[in-house]
Amino acid sequence: MDSQRTAAVREAITAGRTTLGIELGSTNIKASLIGEDHAPVASGSHGWENRFEGRTWTYPLESVWEGLAAAYAALCDDVESRFGVRPASFDAIGVSAMMHGYLAFSAADELLVPFRTWRNTTTGDASGELTDRFGYNIPLRWSIAHLHQAVLDDEAHVSDVDFFTTLAGYVHWQLTGCKVLGVGDASGMFPIDPATGGYDAGMLATYDSLAAERRAAGRTAPPAAVVDLMPEVLTAGADAGVLTESGARLLDPSGALRPGIPLCPPEGDAGTGMVATNSVAPRTGNVSAGTSIFAMVVLEQPLSAVHHELDMVTTPSGDLVAMVHCNNGASELAAWAGLFGEFAAALGTPAAGDDVFGALFAAALEGEADGGGLIAYNYLSGEPITGLDEGRPLFARTPDSTLSLANFMRTQVYAVFGTLSLGMKVLDGEGVRLDAMFAHGGLFKTAGVAQRFLAAALGAPVAVGTTAGEGGAWGIAVLAAYRRAVLDGAATGLGGYLTSRVFAGTELDVVAPDPADEAGYAAFLERYEAGLAVERAAAENL
Length: 542
Fold this sequence. Notes:
The protein is α/β, with parallel strands linked by helices. The chain has four domains: 1-99 and 166-188 and 234-275, ATPase, nucleotide binding domain (Nucleotidyltransferase, domain 5), CATH 3.30.420.40; 100-162 and 191-229, ATPase, nucleotide binding domain (Nucleotidyltransferase, domain 5, 2-Layer Sandwich); 276-329 and 424-511, ATPase, nucleotide binding domain (Nucleotidyltransferase, domain 5, 2-Layer Sandwich); 331-415 and 517-541, no CATH class. The chain contains 17 helices and 22 strands. The protein has helices at 3-15, 61-83, 124-134, 143-152, 167-176, 183-186, 201-216, 245-251, 269-276, 331-346, 353-365, 405-429, 450-458, 471-487, 494-502, 515-530, 532-541, and strands at 19-24, 28-34, 40-47, 51-53, 56-58, 92-97, 103-105, 163-165, 180-182, 192-193, 198-199, 232-234, 267-268, 284-289, 293-298, 311-314, 320-326, 374-377, 394-397, 436-440, 462-465, 508-511. The strands form seven sheets. Strands 16-17-15-14-20-21-22 form a seven-stranded mixed sheet, with helices on both faces. A five-stranded mixed sheet has the order 3-2-1-6-13. Strand 4 and strand 5 form a beta hairpin. Helix 3 (124-134) crosses helix 4, helix 9 crosses helix 14 and helix 10 (331-346) crosses helix 11 (353-365). The N and C termini lie far apart (53 Å). Residues 286-482 form the Carbohydrate kinase FGGY C-terminal domain.
């Protein structure tokens, strides 16, 4: 950064004209500060991990606040090291987090049961019943599936539920006092009607009738109409409240952060991924790869049938999106990279994590197009698309396969995309067409590897921009900037704002699928589908 720009950014920070985005991901809480040109100027992060307690994937709420404060403090330290000042205010703030899950509170605002994250796959009965009743796919992860499973299991806490929300909705509530949610995140709680931008009225009535039937039979049921238990739905740019004094102290215990800053509607990681890749218009889509991996495709019209492989959600503006969500993404790949890093250190040549990834990805490019006959599953947890309630990471090969580092690494990268490509086949069958598919997330920081293999897996060109590695924290910061622009009367629709203000002049690296890679990946995927029986047996017996 040249001295002139450094001085301009320093002045903007001092004057509170920068925008803060915070995203709570599966393994990291990241804070991103962007300037008036939407370019990142500083960041901070804090690592955290979910826990498997009582057969439930969860995060303690104290870890949420410890992590947020740590990430914010790290960002302030980064700002000071770069610009010699510490921020005390911002143009706007945005909060994003992992979608779905279940945080239920009493009328006294007490958490009734430990946070149940999107990763839990114990809601099969509820998902099946609601899908049948609604005529609309309700995946295992969705918040209404978690509530209804508690109803079916006659959990004692159900009668005390006064409010339930997602992680982003919870954090935003604590920072502002407002029980609201961006429409993209809300669409992973309960079905949205794109015509109204709110929860689907017919399905709300259907659920309330179902609850009334149980109540009449003396069975467990929610204490009120379900719409009254969920957050208010807001579209991008809407008034979502301001940072309160207590909220400022939660984020910055040092007391330097001033209250009164406007916040944009809280969003899920799917919505911020769409923003971060400028894929909010029909016939655009994006793939986000992290602990989980998912594809979002903005539709021109509703699908013709219900498909269990597809979530129907929305963009932050409320447009209909088909989502292929896979619980398992790059975590197993990262575990293997860690093992190879340990091996390098044992040989007396320790290497940084990025260097290990770079070397392994370079090796993958040299592998046989089909991975040499090797097979891998990255299933650390269950995978609804392939019908598995639990997962077991697995690597196998046949006697005539070719085991080499190059083939092993290509297979591991292919495995990240395996379940995703099975779900994308369903969209192909519906005749859905894409003008552009964008990719983002740390997996795509190493140029020309994961992007190339993803193009082969999708059979379509894949674009990666300069912000590919910034991810959701940058995306929610952009949504916060959009909220400020709406407040100032300087913005209309989100799509136009992104195209004209955020991504104007952005350079994209577009990779078309290589025919040899496509044929090789198809052979891999055939083995992958056939071997699911082995993965299922592993989950049942190990």
